[in-house]
Amino acid sequence: MNPANYLLLSGVLFTIGTVGVLLRRNAIVVFMSVELMLNAVNLSLVTFSRLKGTLDGQVIAFFVMVVAAAEVVVGLAIIVTIFRTRRSASVDDANLLKY
Amino acid sequence: MTTVLAQGITHTTGWESAIFYVLGTIAVLAALGLVLARSAIHCALMLVVVQFCLAVFYFVQDAPFLGAVQIIVYAGAIMVLFLFVIMLIGIDSSDSLVEVLRGQRVAAVVLGFGFAGLIVFPTGSAIAGTTAVGLDSANGVGNVQGIARLLFTNYVFAFEIVSALLIIAAVGAMVLGHRERAPRPTQRELSEQRIAGEHPSAWTGPGVYADHDAVDSPALLPDGSPTRASLPENMSQDDIIDVIERVGIEK
Amino acid sequence: MPPAAPVQYLPATGVFSATWLLVLFPLIGAAVLLLGGRYTNKWGPYLGVLTPCLSFVFALFLWMAMIGRSGDSREISSTLWTWIPVNGFHVDVGYLIDPLSMTFVLLITGVGGLIHIYSLGYMAHDERIRLFFGYMNLFVASMLILVLANDYLVLYVGWEGVGLASYLLISFWYFKPEAATAGKKAFVMNRVGDVGLSLAIMTMFWAFGQTNFAAVFGGIGGAGSGVALALTLLLLLGACGKSGQFPLQAWLPDAMTGPTPVSALIHAATMVTAGVYLIARSATIYNASQDGRTAVLLVGAITLMIGAIIGCAYDDIKKVLAYSTVSQIGYMVLATGLGTAGYALGIAHLLSHGFFKSTMFLSAGSVMEGMEDTTDMRRFGALTKAMSVTHITFLCGYLAIIGIPPFSGFWTKDAIIEAAWDKGGTSGTLLAITGIVGAGFTAFYMTRLMSMTFWSKSRWRETFRPHDAPKVMLVPMGILAAGALCVGGILVIGRLLQNWLVPSVGEYTEGVRAVNPWLMSTITLIVVLFGVAGGVQGFVRRPVPTTAPVPVSPLVMAARHDLYDNAFNEAVLMRPGQWATRVLVFFDNRGVDGLVNGLAAFIGGTSGALRKLQTGFVRSYAVGILGGAVVALGALLLLRAA
């Protein structure tokens, strides 16, 4: 099997994550979809590393994980704060910033 | 031990394709389940499944360190944080089925297919016939050691920056989550608030049938007629007649 | 032909090199009074009186020095500094003092000084008296710049300066609507004349490359008749505006809403004669164009009749005097139109007019002071006893203006009529007859004025206490009255003034058709006496009604309405102007603004529609991002494939 097939899997997972962001209204699920997209990217980075024969891809995937962790921490805190004031976790309810 | 295991699997092409196709199918189905499941808890579980699949892929592709981190940090810590927040804001906060934005679903699906097509087909044609260099030489001193060497040499600056980012994120989350509690008002403050308001006298009691509460307005009897007895004694007769005429016929 | 005009002036030496002091004194006065603010309130008026008097004293010195020189060395010019040093256009600020300038300087500072003294009394109760003297000093300074300039552009500075001062002083009591309106009217009508003068200056620059007197007068001979005619007509337009000549006379009577000393100094004695000065100063140019002189004659003749006719119909004492001024300046302009035979006579009449008209204005001011500022002559009468001094001074002016021998008007006005006759031909005869008829009208309206004011029966209310003005006003009136009686005779007998002015306006020449001056004077005198008799018959013998009688002849009606001049201006000039303005405003609102506003509305509308895209729903934005990513990706792949 050609190891590059992982890239195709990565693309499919990324697209599914994108559609999830577009379709779901629960902020937490939207967030999970974002995580899915990040994971799909990590998979391609690891695959690149293997295709090229260097470890740089893995290092970058490591950085992505760290940043994702930071993002999750802050994002969930924001969701909790919004929920506390508006009693809702729907992204459609936070639409004050408009025309 | 993991390294040995991984190498054992990797170097057997048949094994790898079997893993890829089985776990790849599971991962895609789980991802679809993440998008389609109504309950947030189910979504989280689906995501855990995807991440476990990816962790296996990492092991298979000579990245045992990342595989371990994926399981420990992602599937472990981060997903626990997700579940924790789901519990915090209500487990029953599931999505309603009605889509309020017109054309959102259609647009999402069409664009999703378009995007997938644009990614998958060119990639598929581009990778035909490529061969992997493989990480045997790069992992010669061990995968963890190789990553560590890169992290603390070429990527040391980015590493420091990212560590600062983590600290900032932690502090930011604390700031966002912290709630300042207003001190409880004392009894004195409550009574002052009640007495020193704009209204100089007590409000008309509940159940009283009157649209005035001035002293020179007579009280009304149950049948609605004014009563002279409720007026102050020192009002002049003329004033009293005026008031009675204004309010209605005296009984 | 007169001798070629001198184009070289002597450099200033001795006392003449300080000629600029004449201007400096009133200029400093004006600056101190106008910039000093209320700190100068206490002593400001006295400073204002002092400065023209200082100038007068210095002018007397200069005059003595000039008399001491021989006739052909009396034209002195000097440059003070360079004003415009552009390559190809060079203007120096300098002065020219010659017999003509000298005459005007003496008139301006002398009569001006007396009127300043008079104003001390007249304006004593006005709380803005300091400002009044500031403006008056500004006027004197500007007028001196005008008459001392040696360059038309510098003259123009003074010309505009007196226009400004005139505007400020006419509307000095700006809180009265009619004063504010009159000031604006004077300013606007003066602008019409100023356009003529400025065009004349531009023509000079175009034709000669310079605007100083020496260059212009030296070059006019070789410039061709077209340039000469254009210059004469444009200068005449300027003179008409400033001197209230036909067809720009309408502002002068309205200007009488200003304080009476202003009427006397600016609108009778000095500023309104600037037009005559301009023509006399430009004698060399006018000598070069016969047609230009004819236009001047025409304007003068028409104006003197218009002024005389309207003067008979008004009941406002100051307006009668104003139309009298218009008429008398008509005589002067007529005289200057006669060429070398008349320049000096015009100046002579100007001088005597300066005396007798300011005498009468100041006397009228004195009457108004005694009658609580009434100007309606139908409310006067029988003031001879109550205002004996005023009556005497007024009488002096009266005798002078109607031309009873041996007083001023007789000498100067008769000389003009005589010179017109001497011009010869039909035109000469017509001009002389016009002059004589005008003299008759003058006698009539002045007698009417005197009768209604002093000699007829009393028509004022019992509460009035008529009295003579204080001494500070009476003394200048007396001096001017004395001048009014004798100045004309002194100037004209023995051709004193004619000879004095030779260096400036050329040799005095007799006309072609000599006539016995005694015969001419006798005819004029008879007509004048008829006019006087008419006035006495109508306004002394018969009782004067306190309101103007209404069913009157069409001529009187027309005269009461300024011969419909204002109506004409309004219908022919003002209304079409307003219509044109409205059309432009419409075009501006709908066309220009429409374009601009339409563009703005288009952008605003488009933005308003596009704004709806900002729904605030983050998922809509996410669709946009993904759509953009798809498009970018597709474009990249297409480019790779191509």
Label this structure with key terms.
heterotrimer; A: 99 residues; mainly alpha; 0% strand; elongated; B: 251 residues; two-stranded antiparallel ribbon; 2 strands; 62% helix
Topology pattern of chain A, helix = H, strand = E: HHH
Oligomer: heterotrimer
Number of strands of chain A: 0
Distance between the termini of chain A: 53 Å
Question: Unreliable runs of chain A, pLDDT <50, ≥5 residues?
Answer: none
Helix content of chain B: 55-70%
Beta-strand content bin of chain B: under 5%
The biggest beta sheet of chain B reads: 2 strands, antiparallel
Mean pLDDT of chain A: 89
Strand content of chain A: under 5%
Mean pLDDT of chain B: 82
Number of DSSP helices of chain A? Answer: 3
Strand order of the largest sheet of chain B: 1-2
Structure report:
The complex is a heterotrimer of chains A (99), B (251) and C (642). Chain A has 99 residues and is an all-alpha fold. Chain A is 77% helix and 0% strand. Chain B is mainly alpha-helical. In chain B, 62% of the residues lie in helices and 2% in strands. Chain B has 9 helices and 2 strands; from the N terminus they run H-H-H-H-H-H-H-H-E-E-H. Chain B has helices at 2-10, 13-36, 40-60, 64-89, 104-127, 143-151, 156-177, 187-195, 237-247; strands at 219-220, 226-227. In chain B, helix 2 runs antiparallel to helix 3 (40-60). By secondary structure, chain C is mostly helical. Helix content of chain C is 71%, strand content 3%. Chain C has 25 helices and 3 strands. Chain C has a 3-stranded mixed sheet with strand order 1-2-3. Chain C is globular and about 120 Å long. Mean pLDDT of chain C is 87; it is low at 1-6. Chains A and B meet through helix 1, helix 2 and helix 3 of A and helix 2, helix 3, helix 4, helix 5 and helix 6 of B.
